[in-house]
Design brief:
It contains three helices and seven strands, in the order αααβββββββ. By secondary structure, the protein is α/β, with parallel strands linked by helices. The strands form three sheets. The protein has a three-stranded mixed β-sheet with strand order 1-2-5, with helices on one face. Strands 3-6 form a two-stranded parallel sheet. A two-stranded parallel sheet has the order 4-7.
Length: about 180
């Protein structure tokens, strides 16, 4: 992901559930980090109807990506807490809140490898994403793989400067890849 995701299109009744979902995911990530349980998949979260698309469940945390963002996530969690206790403060006109939500979403999308899109936005629907960068590929690299199917919006980006003759790069692998939601 590049840049802070803009949530300004999420307005009205979708904004509070958006904040709640993002804060709950942020809190879950930080709690799992503190308890040393980042390798264990999370129980399926309560997904608000305002989330557009399908998430790949269970959510899985990339511990390395979480570790690299931890100090910023701790600060964002503290800054978001007052809004969870006073939902009447949640408004799209609060530029600082909107920027904070964008930063939280960007971090969570990176940590979970999932896109979180909400009603009113014109970005790709929620779903799994895989973004990988390599200098050289000598073996096999696969972006997304499922036992039965990859459904809904899924994105795989693999960048390699060089793929050796013995190398193989596969963006997605599944018996069925169905982009319809």
């Amino acid at each position: 992901m590049s840049g802070v995701a803009d949530l300004s299109a999420v307005v009205g009744s979708a904004l509070a559930p958006t904040l709640t979902f993002l804060y709950q995911r942020l809190d879950a990530v930080l709690e799992r980090w503190r308890s040393g349980r980042t390798a264990v998949p999370e129980a399926d979260p309560e997904v608000p109807s305002e989330l557009v698309g399908d998430l790949e469940l269970p959510l899985r945390i990339d511990s390395d990506r979480l570790a690299s963002r931890l100090p910023v996530l701790e600060v964002l969690a503290l800054a978001m807490a007052p809004y969870t206790r006073a939902p009447e403060r949640i408004t799209a006109e609060d530029a600082e809140l909107m920027q904070m939500l964008g930063r939280v979403r960007e971090a969570l999308e990176d940590i979970y490898g999932q896109r979180f899109t909400f009603q009113g936005e014109t970005r790709e629907r929620s779903g799994p994403i895989s973004e990988q960068h390599y200098e050289t590929v000598a073996g096999e690299v696969t972006g997304l793989e499922a036992e039965e199917a990859i459904r809904g919006s899924a994105t795989s980006v693999i960048r390699a400067k060089h793929v050796e003759a013995s190398g193989k790069v596969v963006g997605m692998r599944a018996p069925v890849i169905d982009g319809r939601s």
